Amino acid sequence: MKFTLSWLKEHLDTTASVDEIAETLTDLGLEVEGVENPAAKLATFTLAKVTHAEQHPDADRLRVCKVMTDEGEKQIVCGAPNAREGITVVLAKPGDYVPGIDVTLSVGNIRGVESHGMMASERELELSDEHNGIIELPSGEVGQKFTDWLAQNDPAKVDPVIEIAITPNRQDALGVHGIARDLAARGLGTLKPLKENHVDGAFSCPVKVSIDEDAATDGCEVFAGRLIRGVKNGPSPAWLQDRLRAIGLRPISKLVDVTNFFTFDRNRPLHVFDADKVSGALRVHRAKGGEEMVGLDEKTYTFSAGQVVISDDNGVESVGGIMGGLATGCTDETVNVFLEAAVWDRVQIAHTGRALKINSDARYRNERGIDPAYNMQGLEDATQMILDLCGGEASDVVVAGQVPDTSRAYKLNPARVISLVGMEIPEAEQRQTLTRLGFRMEGNLAHVPSWRPDVLGEADLVEEVARIASLTKLQGKPLPRLQPGVPKAILSPQQKREQQARRTAAALGYNECVTYSFIDRKSASLFGGGDDATMLANPISSEMSHMRPALLPGLLQAAARNQARGYMDLALFELGHAFNGGEPGEQHVQVSGLLVGRTGPKDVHGAARAVDVFDAKADAEAVLAAIGAPAKVQILRGAEGWWHPGRHGKICLGPKKVLGVFGELHPKVLDEMGVKGPAVAFTLYPAEVPLPRKSGSTRAALRLNDLQAVERDFAFVVDAGVEALTLVNAAAGADKALIDDVRVFDEFIGGSLGEGKKSLAITVRLQPTDKTLKEKDIEAVAAKIVEKVTKATGGTLRG
Amino acid sequence: MDDLRAKYIELIAKAGDEATLEDLRVKAVGKKGEISLQMRELGKMTPEERQVAGPALNALKDEINTALAAKKAALADAALDERLKAEWLDVTLPVRTQRRGTIHPISQVTEEVSAIFADMGFSVAEGPQIDTDWYNFDALNIPSHHPARAEMDTFYMHRAEGDDRPPHVLRTHTSPVQIRHMEKFGAPCRVIAPGRVYRADYDQTHTPMFHQVEGLAIDKDISMANLKWVLEEFFSAFFEIDGIKTRFRASHFPFTEPSAEVDIQCSWVDGQLKIGEGDGWLEVLGSGMVHPKVLQAAGVDPEEWQGFAFGMGIDRISMLKYGIPDLRAFFDSDLRWLRHYGFASLDVPTLHGGLSK
């Protein structure tokens, strides 16, 4: 919403400066987005007088002028046809910035003649598009500031323009009068009362109006109008054109400009039909669907069933409250005009406007809510203005429907206001604020003014009182602790777990990424997603069309981007939600780590190597350990298809309880995602890790054993498909009391063992608890181990 | 005897290696060594002679042994020195590389925010990112025709044909967590709710996903003045600058009343933003007293309870605190960016240890 200072002063009697007004508006909740002060860019220019002008010796169209300035007589070369002796001009001196040509002047030399400045045209000073000659002022003294001259003689040219942002609840501030009311309520001046016009009808209105029954509910409340005959349309007077132009509107004609003036002056959209182009009566009704109309913006609109429109005998002529039709629009030739003032249902306007994608000033106001009680008076005031500007004669007023009764009242509870805001605002001040805003106080009941449809309860009264009192003045008050003393921990076990997982992954050398929650369908479908349930209805691009089913596709895309920049060795991780459906709550936390390329750059020690599945496994185990997962887990096969079928493992507590998966990524998936391998990864599900059973902080007692432990190595030849963990578990089960640890230290495949066989070597650590082991004890355990392993794996002890 | 002593001490001193030394030992104090042979002679001596010669021979033997041991140690030391000299390495060579991981600024700042609010008694609530339009809008006093709905650039989820429910939305703010939390736990309460939010907007300063932290405090007599104090305490702690000033400007949000936009004090010097000084103001969040209709929607009696709520951009305050220029880069995972703006794994923000490094 834009307005000028002088326009505001039509409604507000104030001596406040522009800065004061701007600051107050922001504080009141009418946030100033900009103040444009045209005087600022004209500040350096002064008046001067041409004392002599003669033909340039070397150019037909140039004149060499002697100009009297506040710094004495100067020579200026000028190309304007009107540059002549005796005229008063606007002077720009060397060093001045001339906005219209975007040039800072210097002393020039034009075809051999020095020129000390320029005499400006209106266009060069951005005052208008006029460039047929330099400005000739009818008055003014040499040396006088041009801005001072304008302020006295043409104030609109130096009228500051203020632009404010309007929050959805402040429809009343969409008119200058409403803005003035707010400022007056704060005490920044006095609100000037509006003049109430009344024009008697000279004849009966020949255009009849009606509202169809289907449009009477939630469509159009009241539709009123009158004919004004014998008007003379044409360009508006300068003051009106200036005002409209200052706020960025194009003056069109008197009749149209009057409606725009009321839109911005009173937040009162109106419409004018050329009555000679209207055929028969005007009827407000709901569209059947499929009707078409060319709007004033010359675009064709097709209506859906239920949208509220205005038709005559020829069909739809106007989208009620949103935009008029071109066919019945006013032109310079219009003689008989039908002026319409109506109150529309806000919700209906919002839906229709959105559906037709029309963003007009009328829609903007009608959907936020205008003052319905002003409907009939607004019609009178606009009639008077048309008569004043265009002449003519007004008919009586025709009305369909009724001005809605908006009267309602809410209790002002001054103590509650103080309690909510936390500011001592005396009751008298609270009442005064509401009164100044147009509320009618009756005891503690505040009757809401008709222009505030947003005020719908006591809480709204609190807001009005608070914002006028000024929240800037609010002083902070300590919020007492819930309990005295040391604050308690606040993170849930899951939240704590996420922090630990994140910091462990970073400690393992992974860089944390935050990637978008939405990815493209193809990537999503590679990871089990991409179905319609997780699809966005209105994605901003096809690259972001589906909620991610897993974190890995986002990390792989990140890896591909980094590889494209020349970073080939990557360790990336993310902790966040993946989406297993499109319903609220169908999301779960994952931690995914991705290793790509080598463990590091080439180095003198030869330590760097390609990443492999055991890197991913080690990191997965480390993160799981950090979040309290049990050490004893099963490693199962058969995870999803984006893993290498032979090189992955599911970390499980039982076949259904999957804590995570590690492995190589399927080469096809890598290829589809554009990542150059090798690439290994892990995905963990922190919520699947069971919470510890006990909550105390006491540790189990530490039992140390003084007896010496003994280690024995065994090597078994087993089928190549036998898993090491099976063998280890079998060995460990041979004597649970004595065997402290079983470790695999060698794997040897093929060679002399033959096809399909491998050798696995283990170290078993025996820890006696009551007596030192003798050789025969050890032999007994060893035999048991061999027996158990043989039974479990079908292997044999290697000779 | 003195000759013997002088001879062997000199020979020992001259010995150049362990073999020579061993040879000398055998010759001097070995079973058939010169000193041992002399000691055998003691038996033939008179007791008087023996009393003199015995201790003298023993002393000589000890001295020779000591000299032998000392020389042996010296030789070993010299040999070790020699070996170590040869074992010189170029220690300016680089080490075996170790990856250095980082924590993303969003995670770091979320932890910082949580640490500060935890001290003021706020716990951390969470909610779904895909939510119903009731939780995201209606319950927050934003009915279907409300202009705020259109202004929020909402992402909608696809609806299967035949499913007539209004489409779910990607939450446009963290405010629906207010409703879910109060529904579940009622009043009084103090929570923050950090998380991802979504709006269909992508340009220089907007990304379709960003992060907010919601704050909610409900009790019998919580006021906007308490809100101001909480936010000022927060900003002072977060930016680690004492006495940061905030400015409350009246504004409008459908879910709070009165509503205020909050600016923090700042200055612009040579295009550089400085928080907590100067007379400029920078808008950082929206806030207000929870609207009675919102309390009602969440099943809390507005006659009995009142309180404040606020919503703040985590990405935004991260950018302000750490001088990160471009929001879009947060989600690009450029390794160079992650390394430059990331935090070490052990940089855990705490109130006692400091929030930033």
TrEMBL record, chain A:
Give the TRNA-binding domain ranges.
39-147
Where does the FDX-ACB domain lie? Answer: 705-798
Cellular localization per UniProt: Cytoplasm
Q: What is its EC number?
A: 6.1.1.20
- Which note does the record give on the cofactor? Binds 2 magnesium ions per tetramer.
Query: Where does the chain bind Mg(2+)?
Result: D454, D460, E463, E464
> What does the record give as cofactor?
Mg(2+)
Classification via HAMAP family: Phe_tRNA_synth_beta1 (MF_00283)
Family to which this protein belongs: Belongs to the phenylalanyl-tRNA synthetase beta subunit family. Type 1 subfamily.
Would you tell me the protein name for this molecule? Phenylalanine--tRNA ligase beta subunit
Taxonomic source organism: Tropicibacter naphthalenivorans
Q: Organism classification, top ranks?
A: Bacteria, Pseudomonadati, Pseudomonadota, Alphaproteobacteria, Rhodobacterales
Q: Which gene encodes it?
A: pheT
UniProtKB/TrEMBL annotation, chain B:
Q: How does it assemble?
A: Tetramer of two alpha and two beta subunits.
UniProt organism field = Tropicibacter naphthalenivorans
Please state which protein family the record places this protein in: Belongs to the class-II aminoacyl-tRNA synthetase family. Phe-tRNA synthetase alpha subunit type 1 subfamily.
Please name the PROSITE patterns in this protein's record: AA_TRNA_LIGASE_II
HAMAP family cross-referenced by the UniProt entry: Phe_tRNA_synth_alpha1
The superkingdom of the source organism is Bacteria
Assigned GO CC terms: cytoplasm
Top-rank EC class of the record's enzyme: ligase
- The record lists Mg(2+) as bound by E257
Q: Please name the InterPro entries in this protein's record.
A: aa-tRNA-synth_II, aa-tRNA-synth_II/BPL/LPL, Phe-tRNA-synth_IIc_asu, Phe-tRNA_ligase_II_N, Phe_tRNA_ligase_alpha1_bac, Phenylalanyl-tRNA_Synthase, tRNA-bd_arm
Report the residue ranges that make up the Aminoacyl-transfer RNA synthetases class-II family profile domain in this protein: 107-349
Protein name as catalogued: Phenylalanine--tRNA ligase alpha subunit
Chief localisation class:
cytoplasm
Q: Where in the cell is it found?
A: Cytoplasm
Please name the gene that encodes this protein: pheS
* Reactions that this protein is recorded to catalyse: tRNA(Phe) + L-phenylalanine + ATP = L-phenylalanyl-tRNA(Phe) + AMP + diphosphate + H(+)
Cite a single GO MF annotation.
phenylalanine-tRNA ligase activity
List required co-factors: Mg(2+)
State its Enzyme Commission number(s). Answer: 6.1.1.20
Q: How is the cofactor bound?
A: Binds 2 magnesium ions per tetramer.
